[in-house]
Design brief:
single chain; 590 residues; alpha/beta; DNA polymerase, domain 1; Beta Polymerase, domain 2; TIM Barrel; 3 domains; 7-stranded parallel sheet; 5-stranded mixed sheet; 24 helices; 19 strands; 41% helix
Length: 590
């Protein structure tokens, strides 16, 4: 309440069924990957968007560049797949003419199109890499390339250090400093995979793996938001795998397994016989801190932990285990869920049989963040309610952006929600995602906020403010009695935009003082709040709200990522407000 001042553990990859293989399970949700992967709308949109950017970099017709950008957005937001659509159907999509329709068909058949390939050949690849530097867009890259002869990030760095950019018309000292900061961020990046990126790589790797048992381990199995490398434990079939993979994909090989470079990602495959599978999987899953503490627990029982089993140091006798449960039982502890294996005290609690009863997917009664066509969503109220019915939800909060919906639009939306609720078992809540402006004020006045069932307050602008200013901006929003949740608290977009500068410990402390919930944004492109801050918030008694930030019906399944993050933060069902029944939630919101 606001004051004024099935198991979600990642599991064994199963056998293929109808061309699909389950890669990662989260409660009732199982991510399925087509082994003969079809070109998706995102693939097509990516190629069209790249064409638009390259046209700008090359200094070609700006109208054409904008046309490709518009077409990319239309395809990305389209609810039906473009693969298989004929030219007539494609040209009925706004912004897509005959030429682009033909190129879309070419993309769905070959993965690219001839004009894009020709343009890629004309623009040096190193110039395209400049677009990965913060502060460098396509037009800036064109100026850097054509007027200053800058071809690489190294060239750009030297130009910044030599203060050569500030003398070019349209740049100046501030712009030069901004690009310098972008270069420093670029140098620090390690290009980890996001969850969707890892799923794509796994879909291709699974097609190469031999029949039999195998489990994805490492950070992926622990539910990490980003993955540095993919680790797979396999029982047998090494020779078969070696025959299937390209020779140039192998980057390392030893008796225990092989390391591959596939689709731009590092993949480690470890082979083990079934009798020793338990400790091999345990060692391949846990973080270094977790394994160090588990090794201490094993030594306390007179054993040394190794991937092949538990060894008696005195006799050299090896105790083997077929599964992880047998290992934990032998060490006299509870089974530690993969999400907790980070070395944060979970081993000690497991020895005392005092691990928290982590939240699970069936515990959720609804979703607290969804957008419709009233703002930037691609789903109607009816679509959202039907999706909620299908998922067995009691409620879904409609939280369109305050920047897109005027107060009179909110009143009409509430009336429409009342009509929709009469036809569905899933109850739609009339809410809003309200902007926290640069000065800390909110996108709606209090009289408008007071009429809403639920209010999420989020930062969507002014990302460059100092940490103190940004923090005070969010604290100010929490002071408002109508604000129930702070949305995506760090504003990060994984692999695209770093978190803005904010003191999350101050935010968590103030959330505890004001009774404001913090969001666990389940979009796999955000996964914000990070698990360590979910853990700290739980420790302070702060409530968390899991929301998909769904803009289309298919994104409601992303709720499993939010549960994954909540579990990594040690959350039980009592920590998550959308485990409450509808009546309990409305009481909390009041």
């Amino acid at each position: 309440m606001k004051v004024s001042s099935p198991d979600t553990r990642t599991g064994l990859i199963g056998e293929a069924e109808a061309g699909l293989t389950p890669i990662w399970s989260c409660g009732e949700s199982v991510i399925m990957v087509n082994l003969e992967r079809q070109v998706t709308n995102s693939d097509v949109a990516g190629q069209l968007a790249l064409m638009g950017r390259l046209l700008e970099v090359a200094g070609r017709d700006g109208y054409r560049a904008a046309a490709y950008a518009r077409a990319a957005r239309q395809v990305e937001h389209l609810s039906l797949p473009v693969a298989g659509l004929g030219e007539e159907a494609l040209t009925r999509i706004p912004g897509i003419g005959t030429r682009i329709a033909g190129q879309i068909q070419e993309i769905t058949e070959t993965g690219s199109f001839r004009e894009l390939r020709d343009l890629q050949a004309a623009v040096p690849g190193s110039v395209i890499d400049l677009l990965d530097v913060g502060g460098v867009g396509p037009r800036t890259a064109h100026v850097l390339w054509k007027r200053l002869g800058i071809l690489t990030v190294d060239d750009l760095e030297r130009a910044v250090k030599g203060r050569r950019l500030r003398v070019v018309r349209g740049f100046g000292a501030k712009r030069e400093e901004e690009i310098g900061r972008g270069i420093r961020r670029y140098r620090k990046r390690s290009d980890p995979l996001t969850r969707p990126g890892a799923d794509t790589v796994l879909g291709n790797v699974v097609a190469l793996l031999p029949e039999g048992g195998y489990t994805v381990a490492g950070g992926y199995r622990r539910g990490a938001s980003t993955i540095d490398r993919i680790e797979i434990v396999v029982t047998g079939g090494r020779d078969e795998l070696m025959r299937r993979i390209p020779a140039d994909a192998v980057v390392g090989e030893d008796e225990g397994g092989i390391s591959l470079s596939l689709h731009g990602a590092r993949v480690d495959v470890r082979f083990i016989d079934r009798a020793r599978y338990g400790t091999a999987l345990l060692c391949a899953t846990g973080s270094p801190k977790f394994l160090a503490r588990l090794s201490e627990a094993a030594l306390a029982r007179g054993c040394r932990l190794e991937p092949g089993g538990l060894v008696d140091p005195a006799s050299g006798r090896l105790q083997t285990f077929e599964n992880e449960e047998e290992v934990f039982a032998f060490l006299g502890m509870e089974v530690i869920p993969p999400e907790l294996r980070e070395g944060r005290g979970e081993v000690e609690l497991a020895l005392d049989r005092a691990l928290p009863d982590l939240v699970e997917h069936p515990d959720l009664r609804g979703d607290l963040h969804a957008h419709t066509t009233a703002s930037d969503g691609r789903q109607s109220l009816e679509d959202v309610a039907a999706a909620g019915d299908a998922r067995g939800y009691e409620y879904i909060a409609i939280t369109d952006h305050s920047s897109r919906v005027r107060p009179e639009g909110l009143r009409k939306q509430r009336a429409d929600i009342e009509q929709v609720n009469r036809r569905h078992t899933c109850h739609l809540l009339a809410g809003s995602e309200v902007d926290i402006r640069s000065d800390g004020s909110l996108g709606y006045p209090n009289r408008v906020l007071a009429d809403l069932d639920l209010v999420i307050a989020s930062v969507h602008s002014g990302f460059g403010q100092s940490q103190d200013v940004m923090t005070r901006r969010i604290l100010s929003a929490m002071e408002n009695e109508h604000v129930d949740i702070i949305g995506h608290p760090t504003g990060r977009l994984l692999g695209k935009r770093p978190p803005y500068a904010v003191d999350l410990d101050r935010v968590i402390g103030h959330a505890a003082a004001t009774g404001t919930a913090l969001e666990i944004n389940a979009s796999p492109h955000r996964l914000d709040l990070d698990d360590i801050y979910v853990w700290r918030a739980k420790g302070k008694g702060v409530k968390l709200a899991v929301g998909t930030d769904a803009h289309r019906v298919g994104e409601f399944s992303n709720i499993c990522y939010g549960i994954m993050l909540a579990r990594r933060g040690w959350c039980t069902r009592d920590d998550i407000i959308n485990t409450l029944t509808l009546s309990e939630l409305m009481e909390w919101l009041s």
